[in-house]
Amino acid sequence: DLISTIGESAALGAAGAIFWGDAGNTGSKKNCQLIKTYIEEPLGHYIINVTTAAELCSQTLCRGHGRCRRQESEASIFLHLNPNSFQIYRNEAKYPKPLLEAKG
């Protein structure tokens, strides 16, 4: 569940996240394709959403001098972009950098 892992960490002010697995995850072309699809779609979109929201919050509320974090650690408040104002797009260039970006 991306919200209760990455989202929760970002809301509490974490600077990053670590993902791990083992060689079994990449043991076949099918597994590699499944991981690639997951990274480029739900995981990638969520990371771009949370990262962009955290950057905007820092610029707006902290004038770029720190990270936003939830004031009440037990509250269900997360750093997410408003879907009515922002969309996550895939960069369709031949060698895209970044692969995904938020626009709004």
List the SSEs and their pairings.
Blueprint: H1 2-11, H2 29-61, E1 87-90, E2 100-103
Summary tags:
single chain; 104 residues; mainly alpha; 2 strands; globular
Can you describe this structure?
There is one protein chain. The chain is mainly alpha-helical. It has one domain (6-11, 24-103). Helix content is 41%, strand content 8%. It has a two-stranded antiparallel ribbon. Helix 1 (2-11) packs parallel to helix 2. The longest helix has 33 residues, at 29-61. The chain is globular and about 45 Å long. The mean pLDDT is 91.
What pattern of helices and strands is seen along the backbone? HHEE
Number of helices: 2
- The Rg value, from CA coordinates, equals 16 Å
Helical coverage, percent range:
40-55%
What is the topology, as strand order, of the major beta sheet?
Answer: 1-2
Major sheet: size, sense and barrel closure? 2 strands, antiparallel
- How many strand segments? 2
Please identify the structural class as seen in this structure. mainly alpha
Membrane topology: Lipid-anchor; GPI-anchor
Protein name: Hyaluronidase
Catalytic activity: Random hydrolysis of (1->4)-linkages between N-acetyl-beta-D-glucosamine and D-glucuronate residues in hyaluronate
Keywords: Cell membrane, Disulfide bond, EGF-like domain, Glycoprotein, Glycosidase, GPI-anchor, Hydrolase, Lipoprotein, Membrane, Receptor, Signal
